[in-house]
Design a protein that fits this description.
The protein is α+β, with helices and mostly antiparallel strands. The chain is 30% helix and 30% strand.
């Protein structure tokens, strides 16, 4: 099963997760996404599992291949250092796939549903932030909505709906399960982030300097000016870009694009501002990034109304329209994300970056 076989909304959530990381100190994350879809016409449920280090898909498993496979060249180092890595994680994934198959049937009955298209998903992982702080999350979702989440501070499961209370009581009563889950999220998962960063340091820890340009045009009708600041070709993805007036961050009449990847693994981003041309000299596009020795402040230029600027204007308009369309999708799926926070349980010890066999619902 190809990566595209995963539910569209799950892939959108992945994109949202990347876009929302556009500002702040450099951080690194390890995340896993599991999805099982029942479809009687296709026989057994289709299952796919994807692992991400930062934004890179580094391992993949599906019900067709029945094998955990690398998706980046630097993962070859793992097999050389630990020859049993692939077999061990394949067995874990096969066990998880079977557990998910059982869960789908259990939940269908619990919800009193007929056979048909149903989804059971899990999303979990950890993040090591630039300031040294750590974050872990562990969540499950059924039919695209929150089913149950893990609160690692209280070491308990949280059931937002009646159908999940049975699972909550069951999992909370399993000796040591929640303690192991907390240990995985706070310790083992972080250890694996650091290990994977050492394997893929040429790509995961590289720095690419952003290229920053400012383009301008005069608005038709009211004489206001539109200025667009483009930041391209940077890595890592964390970047601080803002419009500033007299040295202070200025939000009025501004619009921000989304942080998005380029084909070469770098990122691009843009933001626009609409101003009175009489105050042009007061504004700057301010950019801070790890690839810059010092922050950049680009001043605004007088718009050129020549025909050579036509395609630039058209491109800006298209970009704004596309961004608005994507924003609509993000708002829709963001609501779904608020309803659904999917993730994992279990532990296989520090020999596996993924968590071990999970409990049935």
């Amino acid at each position: 099963m190809a990566r595209s076989s995963a539910p569209l909304w799950l892939l959108v959530l992945l994109a949202i997760a990347q876009w929302e990381s556009s500002v702040g100190a450099s951080s690194h994350s390890l995340k896993y996404f599991y999805s099982s879809i029942s479809d009687p016409s296709q026989g057994k449920p289709k299952y796919v599992a994807m692992g991400y280090v930062d934004d890179q898909l580094f391992v993949h498993y599906d019900s067709h291949s029945q094998r955990v496979k690398p998706r980046v060249s630097w993962m070859e180092k793992v097999g050389k250092e630990d020859p049993q890595y692939w077999d061990r994680n394949t067995q874990i994934s096969r066990g998880t796939e079977e557990t998910f198959r059982v869960d789908l049937e259990t939940l269908r009955i619990r919800y009193n549903q007929s056979e048909g298209l149903h989804t059971w998903q899990r999303m979990y992982g950890c993040e090591l932030r630039g300031d040294g702080s750590k974050r872990g999350f562990d969540q499950f979702g059924y039919e695209g909505r929150t089913f149950i989440t893990f609160d690692k501070e209280t070491r308990t499961w949280v059931a937002p709906i009646p159908q999940a209370q049975i699972t909550q009581r069951k999992w909370d009563s399993i000796p040591g399960l929640n303690e192991r889950n907390k240990a995985y999220l706070e310790e083992i998962c972080i250890d694996w982030i650091e290990k994977y960063l050492s394997y893929g340091k040429e790509t995961l820890q590289r720095t690419e300097t952003p290229k920053v340009t400012v383009s301008s045009r005069t608005e038709v009708g009211d004489g206001m000016e539109m200025h667009i600041c483009r930041v391209d070709g940077f890595y890592p993805r964390e970047i601080d870009a803002s419009w500033r007036r007299d040295g202070e961050v200025w939000l009025e009449e501004t619009f921000r694009g989304f942080l998005a990847p380029n084909a070469d693994g770098t990122y691009h981003y843009w933001l626009s501002i609409r101003i009175d041309p009489k105050e042009r000299s007061r504004y700057r596009c301010h950019v801070e990034h790890d690839g810059l020795q010092e922050p950049l402040d680009l001043e605004l230029k007088e718009p050129s109304n020549s025909k050579s600027n036509l395609w630039l204007i058209i491109g800006c308009v298209v970009a704004v329209v596309l961004a608005c369309a994507i924003a609509g999708i993000v708002v829709f799926f963001k609501k779904r994300q608020d309803d659904y926070k999917a993730a994992p349980t279990s532990d296989k010890g520090s020999s596996s970056s993924d968590q071990g066999s999970i409990q049935t619902v």
